[in-house]
Design a protein that fits this description.
Rossmann fold; 6-stranded mixed β-sheet; alpha/beta
Length: 238
């Protein structure tokens, strides 16, 4: 059986006294593409932020590579191979594409290998290569999403967390982003994907969790949930 890379047990997160995540258990195994789906406000982003240390825990435990990471900063996690592409992308708008990518490798000092990884990102996203000297703030939302993903890959993550990567993008750009997510997974990166586009997420994932009002209500192989009438009614508009 594949190694469990990420394990969340009894996770609780609160905003201003209101519990947003109410005791969540989830696991991500090596080589998997796992998706967490649910409506807006279900607690998906809060779960991701808690895993990466940008939101404090009210309760529960988070283990990565078999040890607790509760209280560690995001920079410590990146060093250990856990990287996140946040909702809203968070690119450095006054820096060029090339500079943004190198910021993703700030923990590294292997310059020759970094240059090779920049080339790999450009192979995944040819549009970024064409605009490598353009300021990130002048790019479209889809191009910024590509850049945010490329920047995270520059840290050579074992586990990549993606928070709403398709939000606000054109259908053509959504196709490209989902294609790249599959490519990244095929290259050996384990992925935890939070996504409102439930249909697209379930079609590419191995396993899935459904979140409602801070609780996980369903879990199983993604293809089973894609066929489940409750999921189809709630999230696929059927």
């Amino acid at each position: 059986m594949a190694q469990t890379l990420l394990k969340v047990k009894g996770l609780k997160v609160a905003y201003g006294g209101i519990e947003a995540v109410k005791g969540v258990d989830l696991e991500v195994h090596e080589g998997e593409l796992v998706t967490l789906i649910g409506s807006n406000g279900a607690g998906k982003t809060s779960t991701m932020k808690a895993i990466t240390g940008s939101l404090p825990l009210l309760g529960g435990e988070i283990e990565y590579l078999g040890r607790s990471i509760r209280g560690l900063g995001a920079w410590d996690l990146v060093r250990d191979g856990l990287a996140m592409v946040p909702e809203g992308r968070g690119v450095f708008t006054r820096m060029t594409i090339a500079e943004n990518l190198l910021m993703g490798a700030y923990i590294r000092s292997d310059k020759a290998e970094m240059a090779l990884d920049v080339d790999k990102v450009f192979a995944l996203f040819p549009r970024l290569k064409e605009r490598r000297d353009q300021l990130a703030g002048t790019m479209s939302g889809g191009e910024q999403q590509m850049l945010a993903m490329g920047r995270a890959l520059m840290s050579r993550p074992k586990v990549l967390l993606l928070d709403e990567p398709s939000m606000g993008l054109s259908p053509i750009m959504v196709d490209k982003i989902f294609e790249v997510i599959q490519d990244v997974c095929a290259q050996g990166v384990t992925v935890l994907l939070v996504e409102q586009n439930a249909s697209r997420a379930l079609k590419i994932a191995d396993r899935a969790y459904v979140m409602e009002s801070g609780l996980l209500t369903m879990t199983g192989p993604a293809r089973d949930l894609l066929a489940d009438p409750r999921v189809r009614a709630a999230y696929l508009g059927e």
